[in-house]
Amino acid sequence: MRLLLIFMIIVFAVNVNAQCKTFKLTSSGDTLNCIDQNDQKRGKWVLHVDALRGNPGYDEEGEFADNRKEGIWRRFSSMGDLVAVQNYRWGNLDGTSQYYGIAGIEREENWRAMNPANAFDTVMAQDLDDENKYVQVIIPNDGRSLKHGIWTWYRPGSTGIIKTETYFLNKIQYPKENKETTETTVKKEEPKKEKPKQVLEFEKKNSGKKSTKQRDGKTGG
Q: Per-10-residue mean pLDDT for the chain, 221 residues long?
């Protein structure tokens, strides 16, 4: 049984070696950090980034496809604490990414990945005002992700929201005014009607005079 296990490990290692120019094997036999015969990163990877210019170092794990990050990547501090969960497509951020502090979630972002193979991209994007409506948008592709969707900042240690921002293909969206509220709260001042010329002349002629009571011929009872 032991010989069979050793044989299987050797066969596995030979097979991996045929696909990867360089790689690492974990204690459980998993292949990490494979660079294939075309010098492309693929499969499961663990990366270490040193601290630089005041930014803390970190480790991250996820998968590469055709030398680009793909799918879910998790980032950990040097102490092993989870600090980010990011989603990638074509090597760019795509979908929801979440960032954590010691007290829990701090920020949630939403992104739209662009296909780096295209100079321009036609995007069927969901209308942020109507989840059942989609609009076709043609945009130039500079190879980066676009902010798209709701960004949320949370109060430390709770799910209370500090603020939110909404983006549509990298453009921030401001709340629309309520038309009915605007019409009822902001009324246009009606123009004053001018008095007829004859009335103005009469008022000018009789200004300063005491008003007199006219008798109507009736006698008191």
A: 49 56 89 95 96 94 97 96 97 97 95 89 74 82 90 92 94 73 49 64 65 51 50
pLDDT value of position 167: 94
Distance from C-alpha of 221 to C-alpha of 214, rounded to nearest angstrom: 18
203 within some domain? no
Within a 10 A sphere around the Cβ of 123, how many other Cβ atoms? 17
Residue 129 lies in a domain: no
Beta strand spans in 113-145 (E): 120-127, 130-140
How many domains, in total, are found in the chain?
1
What is d(CA 20, CA 153) in angstroms, rounded to the nearest whole number? 42
Distance CA 26, CA 65 (A): 20
pTM for this model (two decimals): 0.67
* Domain around 163: 2-114+144-175
Q: What is the pLDDT of residue 177?
A: 64
Gap between the Cα atoms of 74 and 83, Å rounded: 8
User: Helix, strand, or coil here: 2?
Assistant: helix
Fill in the amino acid letter for 10: I
Whether 75 is in a domain gets the answer yes
Residue 67: inside a domain: yes
